[in-house]
Design brief:
single chain, mainly alpha, 369 residues, 17 helices
Length: 369
């Protein structure tokens, strides 16, 4: 109940600041709260505390407040695709739309997202949020790597994070979701290259949106194509009967992308979160632009000196390497369950090649940005 109350209060404060606060992104905390505190903050929260977002999700709470005796069934073929669509819209807003940090844009997106998901939750019930709410699905995927989980009796237990990772459902859309996460983070790194900024810096608004949208789609397509081809190439070996789920061989190995996506996200967002996150605290002292100083930080400034460049670089490279090692180990464990011992080595070569490509690409993006 406490987490539900926190979630509802956070949603009200976010939308209230976005709609009624300052129209300037530098004076309104809502953009920072959305893109830093929520989007980036979901990563450490889910890794440390497990599926905590599901308990605090204000949209799930609001939908549950509307009385309804029966719910419609979600078609099995839909699976995670609604979450993929919602996530694609959010990432496009963050990475391709030039006014994504405007408070009014945040207000419109947040309100529309909330209304759509609450309405869907009212129609389809709690199962909608586990499949269709992009932020909850994202948090649940990350939480699979948490040392905390639940047993068959729903009791909280400690577990091997890799064992939790292996329980990600092999359902349609899960590959698209993870490739979207990985590809969008790769594009975020590319868009920071001086070559990219020099190329796109003088573009008009329409051309900017078109070029960045094309770049985002291309990055996701490259990641998706490389992963799907590698996963399907393992199929040259004979798979044990009944070992592959509804999403085929790519779905069987999709869980191995989670630690890689986390490594990419930490590498690209760590310094941004540490510095920009401070602004969310400073602006929270006057969220509605009324001249208040609720937290006594009205004269505060972002401290850019508390993290050294060496530490930032170490975290970036370490996150990518650790993420890819974990991804390789999880892919190997899955291969051991899919293929017979005589075929396992040959079956793993394509996926190993894809993992090496992801590692090299991730380090190149970090060092070049």
């Amino acid at each position: 109940m406490f987490l539900k109350a926190i979630g509802l209060a956070a949603l009200a404060l976010l939308l209230g600041a976005a709609w009624f606060g300052s129209s300037s992104p530098s004076l309104n905390p809502a953009p920072t709260w959305l893109y830093v505190w929520i989007w980036v903050g979901i990563i450490p929260l889910s890794l440390l505390f497990g599926p905590i977002w599901r308990l605090a999700n204000p949209l799930r709470t609001l939908a549950a407040l509307i009385p309804r005796k029966t719910y419609r069934d979600l078609p099995d073929s839909i699976a995670y695709w609604p979450a993929v669509a919602g996530l694609a819209g959010f990432l496009w807003l963050e990475l391709a739309y030039p006014d994504g940090s405007e408070p009014l844009v945040v207000a419109i997106f947040g309100t529309t997202y909330a209304l759509v998901n609450v309405a869907a939750g009212f129609i389809y019930g709690p199962r909608w949020f586990a499949l269709g709410d992009s932020f909850e699905v994202y948090a649940e995927v990350l939480a699979k790597l948490s040392p905390f989980g639940r047993d068959d009796h729903r009791r909280l237990v400690l577990r091997n994070p890799l064992a939790g990772l292996a329980t990600i459902p092999q359902e349609p859309g899960i590959v698209g979701l993870l490739c979207l996460l990985l590809g969008s983070t790769a594009f975020d790194g590319i868009s920071r290259w001086s070559a990219w900024t020099n190329l796109t810096g003088e573009l008009g608004r329409t051309a900017h949106i078109a070029v960045h949208t094309a770049g985002l789609l291309a990055a996701v397509a490259v990641v998706s194509g490389l992963f799907v081809l590698a996963a399907r190439a393992t199929g040259t070996a004979r798979v044990r009967p009944g070992a592959v789920g509804n999403a085929g061989l790519p779905g069987a190995f999709a869980h191995s992308l989670v630690p890689i996506a986390i490594g990419y996200a930490v590498a690209h967002y760590f310094s941004f979160a540490m510095f920009q996150g401070q602004e969310g605290v400073l602006l929270a002292t006057d969220p509605f632009g009324r001249g208040w100083d609720l937290l006594g930080t009205g004269d505060g400034r972002i401290d850019y000196a508390f993290l050294g460049t060496g530490l930032i670089a170490g975290v970036q490279v370490g996150a990518i390497v650790l993420g890819h090692i974990t991804g390789v180990v999880s892919a190997h464990d899955r291969a051991a369950g899919l293929f017979r011992r005589r075929q396992m080595r040959r079956a793993q070569y394509p996926m190993l090649a894809a993992m090496v490509a992801f590692t090299a690409g991730g380090i190149a993006l970090v060092t070049a940005s």
